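Issue: ligand-bound run for iron/sulfur cluster - logging full I/O for the record.

Environment: standard queue, default settings, no custom constraints.

Inputs:
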Amino acid sequence: MDKTLTPSGAAPLIDPFQRAINYLRVSVTDRCDFRCVYCMSENMTFLPKAQLLTLEELDTMCSTFIGLGVQKLRITGGEPLVRKGIMTFFDAMTRHLDSGALRELTLTTNGSQLEKFAPDLAAAGVRRINVSLDTLDDAKFAQITRWGRLPQVMRGIDAAQKAGLRVKINAVALKGFNEDELFTLTDWCASRDMDLTFIEVMPMGDIGNEDRLDQYWPLRDLRARLAERFTLTDLAERTGGPARYVRLEETGQKIGFITPLTHNFCESCNRVRLTCTGELYMCLGQEDMADLRAPLRAHPGDTAALEQAIRAAIRLKPKGHDFDYSRQVVDGKMSRHMSHTGG
Ligand code: SAM
Ligand code: SF4
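Outputs:
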């Protein structure tokens, strides 16, 4: 990003480590129609509606960030597509794509509602989406998501591709669960022209009886397994996030690895995360946050206080996170759920 100018003429968001913040991830709801075992407990208590940002407030928040130089917006949750009226919000963001201020509007979804919403998302200007899918086996899918049904997600992926959306699959690597599907998942993605990214499981939130160390399958092991069958070429491509990419020479496929626990990606971090209640987390792996809802609600129709609060928050962005599984304890464990910050 040009560090000297934003579309509104305001100074861009630069943190104390000279990182330009141009990527905002927004959780639009803490609710979900699934209960993935690594993400939620079976009995979740969700927030009362009054605490959530309204769709209009979400618009104001995002528009203010875009005015300050945010060029990429990823909508997430909880499950973003279960938020009532969410298409109104997507439609509202189209104006920023049209003006050129926003380069990309995208979302991360479990796919359950895509059959219904894919055409509308494409019409709103969404071009690429991430669909989270850990297994291609019906029974295992029901087990890992507790409430999800695979055929519904498959219909959603079909609908997304039919609507012209580019689909990337995100799979959480889970020891003893989808290790045996490494090649099946890879082949399936290749056959449907979808990129695939593996995510290392992170210590986020209380998930009931599940044990993090039992779930942890280091991606360096996964990568070594891939290398037994394919020739892997490291790609220079960086997104400012925790993903690294390789190309499988035999298929031409791009495979991503998100390794927040075994790799240090913080030095190039370009992103911040807004929760559905208007808290801004400057780092996924730290508890520090700034309340942006208070200045937003205190000054309806005037975003000066909000802008000031955003700038103050960016000045506090930490250098990096503290996750560590290395001593057989989950150090740096975060008390909030991934569905709260949005992943
Ligand atoms: N519901 C949507 C979905 O599942 O794609 C969006 C929100 S979900 C919290 C975003 C991503 O976080 C998903 O890809 C999910 O697999 C991942 N995730 C959730 N809990 C995680 C954990 N403890 N460690 C690593 N990834 C996690
Ligand atoms: Fe819901 Fe996504 Fe969390 Fe699964 S990972 S419970 S789909 S928010």
